[in-house]
Amino acid sequence: MVRIGVIKTGNIASSLVLELLLDERADRTDIEVRVVTSGAKMSPEDCESVIEKIFEFKPELILYSTPNPSAPGPGRAIEKLKGRRAVVIGDAPGVKIKDKLEKAGLGYIFIKGDSMIGARREFLDPTEMALFNAEMLKILAVTGAFRVLQEEIDKTIDGIKTKKEYLPRVIVDSSTAVERSGIKNPYARAKALAAYEIAEKIGELNVKGCFAVKEKEKYVPLVASAHEMLRTASKLADEVREIEKGSDEVFRTPHSPEGKILKKSGLMERPE
């Protein structure tokens, strides 16, 4: 049994379901998972604290999920992961440190469409935060980004079990996500590409609205517009799923109890 430690500092949408993607029916017998989180905060002290806590579990694999892995807090955590089998899971800003992670012997999966939220006090409240994450989860699931996470982490786990070392080093852009989504209908694929591309642009707008623009009269409409873009992308994701359901071609990749990824398309087929 492979012991997996999951660390979460701050939040990206991927963080919310990361460990659940590995054991969706809670019946895998080949892994044991523990999760430690600092909640929404990601100061250097917060990040260092959760790292030390997960070490107590003695994991064979560490998954570290955080926004902006290049920030000071996550940077402190990443320093402590050197020399261990670990995968950093983050958003677009993480791409700038991929070479540093490779030199440190760490894996990474950076999901460019897992965009920053519009975190301005005049706009963001708990309800808006929950809605943003709900819409983003749907987009990343439908377009294939979460299947990349599932497959890459499962390959890492399998490498531990077979003693054939593997660490993912993947940047998930729209083409990578949709290519591995299993979407068959060409119109559905086009809609999925559009949804993911919009999701990437949302991050650019929210970074601008949260950090670059100082006037309230300008940054509030800016972050609000980013969230409206998200709603549009979410509707496209709905359409993708309905097209695939209509032709009975929804691609599914459930786990077996032993951890093998099974596959099926037709609703009434048995996964194999």
Task: Describe what you observe in this structure.
This protein has 272 residues and is α/β, with parallel strands linked by helices. The chain folds into 2 domains: 2-111 and 145-178, 3-Layer(aba) Sandwich (Rossmann fold); 118-143 and 183-250, no CATH class. Helices cover 49% and strands 12% of the residues. The protein has 9 helices and 6 strands. It has helices at 13-17, 44-55, 72-81, 98-103, 126-143, 145-162, 174-179, 186-212, 216-246; strands spanning 2-8, 31-37, 61-65, 86-90, 107-111, 169-172. The chain has a 6-stranded parallel β-sheet with strand order 2-1-3-4-5-6, sandwiched between helices. α3 (72-81) links the parallel β3 (61-65) and β4. The protein is globular and about 55 Å long. The two termini are 22 Å apart. The mean pLDDT is 98.
Short summary:
The chain is an alpha/beta fold and 272 residues long. The chain contains nine helices and six strands, in the order βαβαβαβαβααβααα. Strands 2-1-3-4-5-6 form a six-stranded parallel beta sheet, sandwiched between helices.
